[in-house]
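Structural prep section.
Before we set up the soaks we want a predicted structure of the protein with LCLJCK34 in place, mainly to decide which crystallisation condition to try first. Input record follows.
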Amino acid sequence: MVKAHLWPTDTRSQEACLDRVPIACKSTACQSIVWSIAGSDSGGGAGIQADLATMQDLGCHPCSVITTITAQSSVEVSLVEGVSNAMLLAQLNTLLTDLPPKVIKIGLLASQEQLERVANWLTVQLAEHQRQTQIRVAVILDPVMLASCGDALNAQKALNFDCFKGLLTLLTPNATELALLVEQPLPNASACLHAAKQLATRLDCAVLAKGGDQGGTWDPLWAHDVFVCGAVPEVSLDHQNACFLLTNERVNTHNNHGTGCTLSSAIAAIMASGFVLHDAIVVAKAYVSAGLKASYQPGSGAGVLTRLGWPSTLSDFPSIVMLANDETTPHDGHQYMTQALVASRYHALATYLDFEPVSLRQIAKPFTPIKGALGLYPVVDDNDMLARLLAAGTQTVQLRLKDLSRHDLEAQIEQAVALGKQYKARVFINDHWQLAIKHGAYGVHLGQEDLLVADLVAIANANMALGLSSHSYFELILASQLAPSYLALGHIFPTTTKVMPSLPQGLNKLSRYVSLMKGHFPLVAIGGIDETRLEQVKATGVDDIAVVRAVTQAASPADAFVTLSQRWAQA
Ligand SMILES: Cc1ncc(COP(=O)(O)OP(=O)(O)O)c(N)n1
Ligand SMILES: Cc1nc(C(=O)O)sc1CCOP(=O)(O)O
Ligand SMILES: [Mg+2]
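Run finished without errors. Recording the tokens verbatim:
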């Protein structure tokens, strides 16, 4: 398995990482440039027209390279003409010098010859640009072959995309396109999963195989997509080299013209705004889902979705199931979900999808809810400090012991739990869930990498609270599927306390996460938070904050706790 790059613990390098993570915003000062290399749809529902509207709606500056002009309405495609090679190359080269892309989305390509020219341009010119600037440009390819009215859009019905091998970040075929690409019928979702994996290997890229165009044949209530990925930078190792089933409520509408174009251009725009691939996919799916619910029909054929800006309604986001992935599944543990979620979304899994999810276990009993606010939540690594903070009045504290070789690990946990009971405070134990259960701790705090290996049913059955870490939209959704007692959002600022696989998230991303999850779970921000940052963090609307150094490295940790708690309450 390829190791993700680990960001350094020196905070100046991490600050530099923060700087290269602009968030989509509507001000002209910081709009990221995204290109759409695609065809014109004169009907305005799909192609370049859909791409530019989407990219702009998500706060990016869109540029276009038109490959094809189609005379198209919502009911027919009457003429398709590819642009000349000279015009294609002139657009690409003219843009590259002045408006270089952060991310490129590729849609309709007129012919096999044009397809190979674009691949060649990426191989030569874009590669040279990336070498010179040291900036990696993600490329998302939507292998468009048919219009939604069923008419062919390219000269050949099935194009061969093999010359894009190694050039793409993500390929986004629907089930019809996937069948053409692998030259096999795909009678069910399982065949679709195998084809997606085959294509991911063949083109050396991630694949999002969309099941939406299967209508009710797979599952009348839910639309299932398969996401297959290899190594993905800045993402948890557990979520790399993995396959996921992404499930959304099926929106009952025929107004689906241009949804594929919109999804792939939304993925491109969201990546250009500094989000990792996994996040771009789930946010783009929510964007399309929300848009379809508000779709309209301007002609007599299929209508189009409405663009409603950055999504923030949790029910529009897909749920995520990790699929067993032969030799590459990171763990052979269990994945958990609330019983309610399994009952609503996955009752049909066995009937319609003969996939093998990594063993799915249901959590029937809820984790103990947090009463009142967590406030300022210190995380400490010894019981002397824990006792001092309890004496100073902390109501919530976490014992985070990382030295597994220490002989007194169990005794430390037992003592921390006893101290918590003595002070009637909530003591959370990090990582060591078996010992936390054994000694009757108030709660446990677990990271994403613990989620497949810890026995979450045993934790719930022990009447304990559960706190979960997250570092992205994708991880937030995975964590929310367990209905934990609180969700931690990290790391917001650079930290020297631990080495992280992800980048510091920054305040803009924190605000986005808060608008998605606020009210569903108590939200705790962590990572690099100190006195100077309390007000900015509070302004995002996050409920509580967890700190290590701001308390443990203060001259008087007890005084620091009291002062910071008061400032947080007043901020
Ligand atoms: C409140 C809070 N948030 C996040 C963490 C990090 O937990 P985890 O991801 O398990 O990483 P380690 O702490 O084990 O390094 C936390 N401990 N507390
Ligand atoms: C333990 C921990 N977990 C994080 C996460 O993002 O999950 S950040 C972090 C360290 C926070 O330490 P400090 O307050 O000293 O920056
Ligand atoms: Mg942990």
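Observations: The chain has two domains: 31-362, 376-570.
Flagged for discussion at group meeting.
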